[in-house]
Amino acid sequence: MELESNPVVVLHACLGVGHLIPMVELAKLFLRRGISVVIAVPTPPANTGDFFSSSGSAVATLAAANPSISFHHLPPPDYPSPDPDPFMQMLDVLRLTVPSLLAFIRSLPPVAALVLDLFCVETLDAAAETSVPAYLYYTSCAGDLAAFLHLPHYFATTEGNFKDIGKGLLHFPGVPPIPASDMPHTVLDRATRACAARIRHYARIPEARGVLINTFEWLEARAVRALREGACVPDRRTPQVYCIGPLIVNGEAAAKGERHACLSWLDAQPERSVVFLCFGSLGAVSAAQLKEIARGLEKSGHRFLWVVRSPPEDPTKFFLPRPEPDLDALLPEGFLERTRDRGLVLKMWAPQVEVLRHAATGVFMTHCGWNSVLEGTSAGIPMLCWPQYAEQRLNKVFVVDELKVGVVMEGYDEELVKAEEVEKKVSLVMESEEGEKLRERLALAKEKAAEALADNGSSLMAFSEFLKDLKLSE
Ligand code: UDP
């Protein structure tokens, strides 16, 4: 990789599609301002199969699709005894990668800033050693950040575990009441190592000079205000926050004429008539659940475009690569034939952003990964919220109770979401007055998202402010 002698910004990425995509979008923002940027990605050691197994191909795909962006592959660290817990394994690899990132920074022309994924927070040590200003890039919502920043204080001043509070409500600054059971599973039990590691990460966030958040002010005004006022971190300084989103893929592939067949199928459907179901890059529902969804869709009578993945063998290992689904074996007998005229099932992957922007799409059943929420909001599509892993339950609380751009799929926290619930919620959004109100709210949110990214919009202004802080702009 050739870098010019201009100052360069180094983005330290965590592996994982939902983290890499917004990192690439951030890199484009720098390039558009004429600022050199490089994305440094960790390389997992050969003995850490599990957690990272699908990430290498994600990096390769993104790099091939974005030739103007430099990727630097950091060498795999020595990790003789991988932790048996895959989550801890990921954190270990990122921490052990810090020395090679440090060497990389030293090899470059002046580095204007380091921008770190939250999982790479230990890289703050490399920034301190080199005196390079360090910023975090938070790729989920401001609401999550407000809650997470508050957790070290909360844990220091309370006892007990979220897992024992169940649906009891937590009251944190800047966010609506959160059922304790909707907190990420890694913080449900403070006796676990994962919980200790996460709290340590959250406690280190204030060491950053600023935090870029992939959101826009209008959408999360209350959480952003609480962050700015320092209400989330009562005893320390809160870094400056810059809401620079929504940074989402802009569907360039479609514009270049590489159109996915499902978009032609959508062309033939009436406006706002299709239910789009897609559960992120890892979608993790069981075989029984797939059948239940199919029954619900069939009963609803509505058109649908459904991305199906093979169920994970072990639901706690949803991140492992899985084979292509055998649709005939997984879906109810005769389902594909009976719904042939009004439904399309895709294996593994859909061009989500293009689908959401298509005029035929009417509702989005989503797992509430933050990229998906931003993509749905920016396209003005109401969401049916079915959280599955990571911080998605927390996102669901905000999407439904605060942003009011979606409704919840009841049963998401039980063994099955019933077919009747699928039918009921699809009908609610597609046919009822409540659905109409939701669409009006989404139309406004779509407008506000576009405004935020327009010249002089809040997000581009925030990015300019950030560049001024870096002395990369007047
Ligand atoms: N995505 C896609 N097609 C799919 C599944 C996912 O394009 O079939 C994209 C989606 O548009 C989003 C990203 O992958 O940009 C998933 O990120 P998100 O934060 O929603 O969820 P995660 O995969 O991290 O759980």
Automatic annotation (TrEMBL):
**Key word Ubl conjugation present in the record?**
no
Query: What would be one Pfam family of this protein?
Result: UDPGT
- Output the superkingdom of the source species: Eukaryota
Arranged from A to Z, the UniProt key words for this protein are:
Transferase
GO function terms (MF aspect): glycosyltransferase activity; UDP-glucosyltransferase activity
- Which Gene3D superfamilies does the annotation name? Glycogen Phosphorylase B
Q: Does the keyword Transferase apply?
A: yes
This chain's protein is named Glycosyltransferase
**Gene behind this protein:** LOC100844568
